Amino acid sequence: GASRTKQRKSFERLKDDVRAEVRDLVEKHGGNLKRTFERVDESGRGQISRSQFRRVLSDLRMTLRSSDINDLFDAFDSDGNGRLDYREFMDIAGVPVVKERKTVNGFQKLKDHVQDEIRRFVDRNRGNLKQLFADMDRDGSGRITREELRRGLRELNVELSSAEIYDLVDAFDADNDGRIDYNEFMEIGGLAPGRRTRAPEAKDLKETVQAALRKLSGRHGAGLKRMFADLDRDGSGRITREEFRRGLRDLNISLSSASIYDLVEAFDKDGDGRIDYREFMEIAGIAGIAGVAARKSPRVSGIHRLKENVQDVLRRLADRHGGGLKQVFADLDRDGSGSITREEFRRGLRELDMD
Known about the structure:
- This protein is mainly α.
- It has 19 helices and two strands.
- GO terms for molecular function: calcium ion binding.
- This is EF-hand domain-containing protein.
């Protein structure tokens, strides 16, 4: 009733305050919205994360509770993908969201220049476009950020301004995630995406990796889960291409970036560009066995008791906090990403004396 209406009005005033501060920030950058967005988007991904949004509000000297910051972020994140793209930033700044028109002739020249340099590189390197893509994708995510594209093109002697990089990505970014995947990169290079070809040694590569993983697993006993945890350096529950490359290097298996792409692509069933535990079991050639064993394990009842203990502690903590469960979540989510990693969850439970 009345209380909810009052809360809604208070939140709308808070949104208006944020919009006013962001407009002032744009003015400080000479009224250039794109330049302001680039300054906030420190990673050059074309998207602002929760933690970056939190830092902006802090730099603007807006002291807000974590739960309020999360609510504001969710309100401005119109597509609900957990990041703010340029169009959503335009909305915060109160600028009508109209696609900016490019000068057709100027953009065509830019596109032709980039395509010519990419083709030259591919011709010099026996047609290996995938290797070029892998070299540009420095974090091994399977998608090239604006900053990675700018650096990669610079190494091809193509120097582009920030605005030109934005225009280029905007033109070829078919799924509008602010980054370039391999198919979109093929389009930039003027090559129509077709069926992806496997390197002729892919089968041998797969068998070599399986043999090494099995050997290591045998050395650790039934240690496949432990091996997975060692490879998953950031504790996210999924192994990135870069983590996989480093792990294989530690096993004395040195692979090119392109080979890593082929290997991950072969086992990445959900297409997210990373390897989860079930996919890792398949790489090791023992898919499904561990999952069945876990379901029959006598440890299940112990896990159930652990789950109940954690739930009980979280409920008590939520009751104690003025902000409820949402505030507890915000406290655990240390980097403000909107999701809690295994490491953040472990630290949070440790602080609750649940080691």
